[in-house]
Structures are given as structure tokens and as C-alpha cells.
């Protein structure tokens, strides 16, 4: 017989017996709902429950930045957040930035400037750069370096990543009509 709490039936995982909780998130502009254990990390929810495998899990301690997603537009480490704690909010993963046909400026710039090698860290860099450039459309090289300083790449010397961030800013400005063009 199911357990009840305050007259409501508690739902439990049939294999572990762990209580499940309803989670509702707007992920890449689509509302998603699921029942998950309270300890399900946002990174695992995205990867395993929603099959959005662009969010990578590296260190699992919030240090490397590979799991960075945008939560209500701000970059966060999805390996440090429980899915139940962000219910009702909006998450943008690397899959939600753009598509091959309509790339986000950071995606286009990383492609043009060879801002990746193995690609494992790239989703975190892309989401971090997208959030930064939305607030700072004309960064200097030093500012671009500071913006990505929380993300680690084991393959590059960061030169092409910094060039990519600066190029993404240029692309975004080129795509935005000036007041005189309107």
C-alpha cells in the first residue's frame, strides 16, 4: 500500500523504494515534466531523463565547467544543483543555443576560430560565453579571458577559445541592427 503524507499518496521508485518528486522545467523553451528522486542532479536529469547529452559531466565538483547550463539566463554548474531545486525555472543547454542551420554567434565563432579540440569542454564554454556576451557585447581580450576563467580545457592553450569569444561578440554585433538602420 502506498504511503501517504498529509492525505497525499507518496510515489516511490519501484526499484529503490526512494521517494519521487515532480519536477517541471522549461528546457530549451519546452516545458518538461518528470518524477525524479530528490537527489537527482540537474546534469543527470538533463542527460539521462531528457536525453540532452550535450551537457557534459567532468569533475562532478563544479570546478571544470563542462556541465555549465543557463538557469534563467545565468551560467550555473548543473552538477551542483538538484533538479527539484530548480523546478519552475528555465534551463538552456548547449542544444538550446542554436542549430546547424541557425547557429548562435558563439557556436559560429567556435567553428570559425577552431575554439575546440576534443570538444568535451565546449558546451560549457559555449553557454558561459553566450551568457557573458549577452551582458557584455564588446569585451576586451582580458575581459574575454576573465569571462571563461571558470572553465577548464585540457586540450588547448585557450588562445582559440579567447579568439572565439571575441569573434562571437563581432558576429552578434553584425547581426544586431544599429539604431540608424531601423
**What is the terminal separation in angstroms?**
66 Å
Q: Characterize the largest beta sheet: strand count, sense, and whether it forms a barrel.
A: 5 strands, mixed
What overall geometry do the principal axes of the alpha carbons give? elongated
**How many distinct beta strands?**
7
Which structural class should the secondary elements be placed in? alpha+beta
Rg computed from alpha carbons, rounded to a whole number of angstroms: 19 Å
- Spatially, the strands of the biggest sheet line up as 4-3-7-5-6
Overview of the structural elements:
With 182 residues, the protein is an alpha+beta fold. Helix 2 (105-112) crosses helix 3 and helix 2 (105-112) crosses helix 5. Strand 3 and strand 4 form a beta hairpin. It is elongated. The chain has helices at residues 42-49, 105-112, 122-135, 141-147, 159-175; strands at 4-5, 8-9, 20-27, 30-37, 68-71, 74-77, 90-92. Residues 1-8 have low confidence and may be disordered. It is 30% helix and 17% strand. It has a five-stranded mixed β-sheet, with helices on both faces. It has two domains: 15-96, Ubiquitin-like (UB roll) (Roll); 105-176, [2Fe-2S]-binding domain (DNA polymerase, domain 1), CATH 1.10.150.120.
Secondary-structure blueprint of this entry?
Elements: E1 4-5, E2 8-9, E3 20-27, E4 30-37, H1 42-49, E5 68-71, E6 74-77, E7 90-92, H2 105-112, H3 122-135, H4 141-147, H5 159-175
Amino acid at each position: 500500500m502506498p504511503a501517504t503524507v498529509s492525505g497525499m499518496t507518496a510515489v516511490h521508485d519501484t526499484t529503490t523504494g526512494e521517494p519521487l518528486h515532480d519536477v517541471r522545467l522549461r528546457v530549451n523553451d519546452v516545458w518538461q515534466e518528470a518524477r525524479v528522486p530528490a537527489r537527482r542532479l540537474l546534469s543527470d536529469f538533463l542527460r539521462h531523463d531528457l536525453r540532452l547529452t550535450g551537457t557534459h559531466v567532468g569533475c562532478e565538483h563544479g570546478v571544470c565547467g563542462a556541465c555549465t547550463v543557463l538557469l534563467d539566463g545565468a551560467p550555473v554548474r548543473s552538477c551542483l544543483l538538484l533538479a527539484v531545486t530548480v523546478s519552475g525555472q528555465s534551463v538552456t543547454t548547449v542544444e538550446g543555443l542554436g542549430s546547424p542551420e541557425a547557429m548562435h554567434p558563439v557556436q559560429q565563432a567556435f567553428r570559425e576560430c577552431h575554439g575546440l579540440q576534443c570538444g568535451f569542454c565546449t558546451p560549457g564554454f559555449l553557454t558561459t560565453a553566450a551568457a557573458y556576451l549577452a551582458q557584455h557585447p564588446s569585451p576586451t581580450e582580458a575581459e574575454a579571458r576573465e569571462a571563461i576563467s571558470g572553465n577548464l580545457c585540457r586540450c588547448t592553450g585557450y588562445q582559440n577559445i579567447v579568439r572565439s569569444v571575441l569573434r562571437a561578440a563581432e558576429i552578434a554585433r553584425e547581426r544586431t541592427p544599429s539604431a540608424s538602420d531601423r
